[in-house]
Amino acid sequence: MAPGHLSVREMREDERPLVLEMLKAGVKDTENRVALHTLTRPPALLLLAAASSGLRFVLASFALALLLPVFLAVAAMKLGLRARWGSLPPPGGLGGPWVAVRSSGDVCGVLALAPGSSAGDGARVTRLSVSRWHRRRGVGRRLLAFAESRARAWAGGMGEPRARLVVPVAVAAWGVAGMLEGCGYQAEGSWGCMGYTLVREFSKDL
């Protein structure tokens, strides 16, 4: 599917269930990799070992004491990721959410934007997901180009000193990071837990 066969428009209310399923599927594709990346860091392994040691005095089963902290940690991490990226944010100052639509009418991607937290921060991508059946066909790049055009228009209308777009990416989403770097974005910051990166932020001056 060529990018020229795609259009981007605001999401209709009847498309909300489909878009939510797309977002949840996108999170599900990366949550296991994020959990594995996080729980194999030395501080996390130390905490899990300490929790297992403590549970051995309470639980009769050694296997249960070993596995329960891991299960709870993975479940908490997955719930956190789904709450953050698996739902639709309320409409912000930049409008949306938007969907990418094929010429056949099939919705194949979703995008949401929000203003930065302070003046000069530009716009932020808060949701960007492509249906697994339409990946590697230019949908992500088309949505990113649309986000850049919206960010430019919003910055001009608000009298912002510069137009800028920031895209947060989970550390395990290597495909998205590669697409952003290919489009001229640079990694500028990150946030995580216990000194280990969970999300990298890519930005571009437009």
From TrEMBL:
Domain N-acetyltransferase: 55-206
Gene3D superfamilies, per the entry: 3.40.630.30
Recorded GO CC terms: membrane
Chief place where the protein resides: membrane
Residue ranges crossing the lipid bilayer per the database entry: 55-77
Cell compartment(s), UniProt: Membrane
Keywords from the UniProt entry: Acyltransferase, Membrane, Transferase, Transmembrane, Transmembrane helix
One Pfam family in the UniProt entry: Acetyltransf_1
Molecular function terms from GO: N-acetyltransferase activity
InterPro entries the UniProt entry points to: Acyl_CoA_acyltransferase (IPR016181), GNAT_dom (IPR000182), NAT_camello-type (IPR050769)
Lineage top rank: taxon: Eukaryota
Cross-referenced PROSITE patterns: GNAT
Family matches, as PANTHER family: GNAT FAMILY N-ACETYLTRANSFERASE, N-ACETYLTRANSFERASE 14-RELATED
Biological function: Probable acetyltransferase.
Family in the record: Belongs to the camello family.
Name of this protein: Probable N-acetyltransferase 14
Native source species: Enhydra lutris kenyoni (northern sea otter)
Gene: LOC111139610
